Amino acid sequence: MSKYAFLFMDDGVDYQNDPTPEQQKVYADIFKWFEVNGPKIVDGGAELQPTRTATTIRKSATGKVTVIDGPFIESKESVGGFSIIEAPDLDAAIAIAKTWPGYGIEIRDVVEQRERVAEV
Amino acid sequence: MPKYMLMFVGSDDWYDKQSKEELDKAYQPIMKWWDDLSKTGVIKGGEELGMQRKATSVKRVNGAMKVIDGPFIESKETVGGFALIEVEDLDKAIAIAKSWPGGDVEVRPIVDHGA
Amino acid sequence: MAAVFHEEAGRLTAALVKRLGDFDLAEECVQDALVAALEHWPRTGIPDNPGAWLMTTAHRKGIDRLRRETRYREKVAQLEEAPMTEAGSMPDERLELIFTCCHPALAREAQLALTLRSVAGLTTAEIARAFLQTEATVAQRLVRAKRKIVDAKIPFRVPEGHELPDRVGEVLAVLYLMFNEGYLATGSRGAMDRDLAAEAEWLTSLLARLMPDEPEVLGLLALMRFNLARADARFDAEGDLVLLRDQDRAKWDRPAIDETFLLVGRYLRMRNPGPYQLQALIAGAHADAKSWETTRWPDILRSYDALLALHDTPVVRLNRAIALWHVEGPEAALAEVDSLSRELNAYHLFHATRGELLRALGRTADARAADARALELTENPAERALLEKRLARRSR
């Protein structure tokens, strides 16, 4: 069994806390998805608020630290949440991700401490 | 108390350029940061993520989920890791983000479903 | 009424933010109260205690608003419980408000608009006019900023000791930008919009009252006041820009200049130099001189050297070069200016300064070219008129 990080992707539409009926259905399906896949989720993680609530700490080459309004990357699509799931292998993780009712998921490996030391 | 997600910005390029010794050296302050912060109890979760180019994505295209070999968005910088913290307010979250020994950090409040 | 709004709007917003714990809601209640005042006071006259009138009204409007929106149910109870009898004894929490409006997690334009709105009591329309933007754009910007304060939980407080220097710096940067927008405005509004500069001075003056021991705040206030004291001499009868060296110093506000030197004395005694304090010393040296020729250039050069030690930027070096010109001659100054060409090539004042130095060295053709380049790079109508005049003169 391996751990995989699911980065739930947002399509960039801000419903301003006022979702349409279609979006409400998606939310309901997402709720069910978490219930159904509960056993495979080792860390529920969190749902993130939209990028307009983000603040980025930037470091210059000289080490100067600046606080900036906004996400670290300006793009229509962004990360809307994280969870950590456990699956036998990547194919199994992909199969689970394909059942996600939302816009999309980026699946990343999770780096375990011991891997770094053993790395060749 | 509110929770914030800290997203640590990284790039595959940076990893590629490091020797094994340089990588171990770079990780020392990072591992200390995790240790010290864990003792304060503000950390509620977090992971380091693998290289962006090794990612696999699924994306909804015309209603169906399509599998993509690679990251969701092609970009020089990506989320290299994250930490979920629980603190009083944004100023406290920013202070913790500023103490990160690595590169840039994005601070985003989470949706509190418990409320 | 504008003066009353100035004084009371900020106080009121701050008090409500504290009480309600919701910046957005507090702001809406204050706006409701100001609108009500605009409707009633022209008929009934300004009340003896305008602050109390506004507070009572904001309170009542607040309860109405909360009843309409179910998500605020608990807050209704909070408001109804709170005693409303502190008429006239509202604690001044405007310092918390200023730091919140100028929080670094907000974009600079949001900081500007929010400070003008919440602390100075300007309407959306007034802010839009000041920055040559549409009302809709400014309204959107304010909505986004207030939502971010609520959603990301930007706290309503004066920063703690160790955070204070950076945070004060952020507030001063906002106020300085506001002043420059008004004093040197770009675009087609006109050569100088003194109202925005006056707002910036008012806000900085308020900040100085609330933080009397912060030397950089006093420094920025002095800098603004020295500049404002010269305002009447900046334009001639045709409305064209007059350079400092050509200004009629009889038109300078001498009493204001003398009073500002008292401010300089205050911050010098704190022995904690900083960039704004040094820039004010430079402005003061000019304000003190009876003529361009008798200006104490070595003193100004020394101030620039001290400024560079704290804040080494190409623009500071450029301004220092003018002082260098008067102390060491145009060749030394031109060499210094030319060394900045990579960084400042897109800056119109870089080329305008080069033009002046080249002219002083008798290199007329090169001076023309530099002035022409400066003209290409600025949209400010007053500066354009000046450069056009300069170029037209030499072609005769």
Description:
With 120 residues, chain A is an alpha+beta fold. Chain A has helices at 21-36, 90-98, 113-118, and strands at 2-10, 41-47, 55-59, 65-69, 78-87, 104-111. A 4-stranded antiparallel beta sheet of chain A has the order 2-5-1-6. In chain A, strands 3-4 form a two-stranded antiparallel ribbon. In chain A, a hairpin with a 5-residue loop joins β3 and β4 (65-69). Chain A starts with a strand and ends with a helix. Chain B has one domain (3-109): Alpha-Beta Plaits, CATH 3.30.70.1060. In chain B, 31% of the residues lie in helices and 36% in strands. Chain C is mainly alpha-helical and 396 residues long. Among the domains of chain C are: 2-81; 313-396, Alpha Horseshoe (Serine Threonine Protein Phosphatase 5, Tetratricopeptide repeat). Helices cover 70% and strands 0% of the residues of chain C. Chain C has 20 helices and no strands. The longest helix of chain C is centred in the N-terminal third of the chain and has 22 residues, at 23-44. The radius of gyration of chain C is 24 Å and the shape is elongated. Classes of the chains: A alpha+beta (120), B alpha+beta (115), C mainly alpha (396).
Q: Report Rg of chain A.
A: 17 Å
Uncertain residue ranges of chain A: 114-120
**Strand coverage percent of chain C:** under 5%
Instruction: Give me the CATH superfamily of the domain at 313-396 in chain C.
Output: Tetratricopeptide repeat domain
Termini separation of chain A comes to 22 Å
- The CATH homologous superfamily of chain A: Dimeric alpha+beta barrel
Indicate how many domains the architecture of chain A comprises: 1
Q: How helical, in percent, are the residues of chain C?
A: over 70%
Per CATH, what is the topology of the domain at 313-396 in chain C? Answer: Serine Threonine Protein Phosphatase 5, Tetratricopeptide repeat
Computed structural class of chain A? alpha+beta
What's the structural blueprint in terms of helices and strands?
The complex is a heterotrimer of chains A (120), B (115) and C (396).
Chain A: E1 2-10, H1 21-36, E2 41-47, E3 55-59, E4 65-69, E5 78-87, H2 90-98, E6 104-111, H3 113-118
Antiparallel strand pairs in A: 1-5, 1-6, 2-5, 3-4
Chain B: E1 3-10, H1 12-17, H2 20-40, E2 43-49, E3 56-61, E4 64-69, E5 78-86, H3 90-98, E6 105-109
Chain C: H1 2-20, H2 23-44, H3 50-68, H4 73-81, H5 94-101, H6 108-118, H7 124-130, H8 135-151, H9 164-183, H10 194-210, H11 215-229, H12 254-269, H13 275-288, H14 297-310, H15 314-328, H16 330-338, H17 341-344, H18 348-360, H19 364-377, H20 381-395
Helix pairs in contact in C: 1-2, 1-3, 1-5, 2-3, 3-4, 6-8, 7-8, 9-10, 9-11, 10-11, 11-12, 11-13, 12-13, 13-14, 14-15, 15-16, 16-18, 18-19, 19-20
